[in-house]
Design brief:
The protein is α/β, with parallel strands linked by helices and 160 residues long. The protein has one domain (3-157): HUPs (Rossmann fold), CATH 3.40.50.620. The chain has seven helices and six strands, in the order E-H-E-H-E-H-H-E-H-E-H-E-H. It has helices at 7-19, 36-46, 59-66, 75-83, 100-106, 125-130, 146-157, and strands at residues 3-5, 24-29, 51-57, 90-94, 110-114, 134-138. It has a six-stranded parallel sheet with strand order 1-4-3-2-5-6, sandwiched between helices. The radius of gyration is 16 Å and the shape is globular. The relative contact order is 0.20.
Length: 160
């Protein structure tokens, strides 16, 4: 079971883990309405190293990215759920639209995003590769997304 930590704390933790020779994996996202696709993605990310850190977009950040109707689930609840997944070691919440600043502070060995991104689009790629790390695109579980779940709920329960 993982822990929810602040940015300063994750920087210190990461520094210590690197001294121990641990391979640090980082990914990020909104993780609003956690579903099978999220869980499988995080499990695949964890397989790429020793410690998985998940950067979680704050409520403010999600609203900036997804619009006024999101998030559905609060950052506290999303962080709690993520930190209780077997594959997740640490969750850190960030307010910016992208995790660039956070990635620059922890400098993970592996930066993971879903295969719906191109390598060129991955935020923080320059930081990770510039420090000898790698960027990995993980195949996503087909037809699994928060947007699809919301659409299904609206279709089934909001018919006029």
């Amino acid at each position: 079971m993982g822990r929810v930590v602040g940015i300063d704390e994750i920087v210190n933790i990461t520094r210590e883990l690197k001294k121990e020779g641990k391979k640090i994996v980082f990914t990020n996202g909104c993780f609003d309405i956690l579903h099978r696709g999220h869980v499988e993605y995080l499990a695949k990310a964890k397989e790429l190293g020793d410690v998985l850190i998940v950067g979680l977009n704050s409520d403010l950040s999600v609203k900036q990215i997804k619009g006024d109707g999101r998030p559905i689930v609060s950052q506290e609840d999303r962080a709690f759920i993520l930190s209780n997944l077997a594959s997740v070691d640490y969750v850190v919440i960030f307010d910016e639209p992208t995790p660039y600043e956070l990635i620059s502070k922890i400098i993970p060995d592996v930066l993971v995003k879903g295969s719906d991104w191109s390598i060129e689009e991955v935020v923080g790629r320059d930081v990770v590769e510039g420090n000898g790390g790698q960027v990995v695109l993980v195949e996503l579980t087909p037809n699994r997304s928060t947007t699809n779940i919301i659409k299904t709920i609206l279709e089934r329960f909001c018919k006029q």
